[in-house]
Amino acid sequence: MAYTYYLYFFIRIGQESLMEDNWPDEDIENELSPIAVQLGYVQQVGVLISQNYLSYANFTYFKSL
C-alpha cells in the first residue's frame, strides 16, 4: 500500500529533523507516536481487506462448483 510508504517516510523525516535539533530519543518517540499509530491502523486495515477478498474469492469459487 502506498499509504504505508508515506507513513514510514514521514517517520524517517521526523526522526532526522528532531535528531538534528538534538531532541532526546524518548521525546522523538513521543512526538512521532501518532504517526506510528496511524501506520499500525493502515497495516491492520490492509490485512483485513486482504482476508476479506480471499474469503470472497473462495466463496465465489466454491459456489461455481
Condensed summary:
The chain has 65 residues and is an all-alpha fold. It has helices at 2-20, 25-63. It contains two helices and no strands.
Query: How far is it from the N-terminal to the C-terminal residue, by CA?
Result: 33 Å
Number of domains as seen in the coordinates: 1
How is the main sheet built? Answer: none
The portion of residues assigned to helices is over 70%
Proportion in β-strands: under 5%
Uncertain runs: none
Morphology call: rod-shaped
Fold and architecture overview:
2% of the residues are buried. This protein is 89% helix and 0% strand. With 65 residues, it is mostly helical. The mean pLDDT is 85. The radius of gyration is 19 Å and the shape is rod-shaped. The protein is built from two helices and no strands. The chain has one domain. The longest helix is centred in the last third of the chain and has 39 residues.
Key descriptive features of the protein:
0% strand, single chain, 2 helices, 65 residues, 89% helix
List the helices and strands and how they pair.
Elements: H1 2-20, H2 25-63
Helix pairs in contact: 1-2
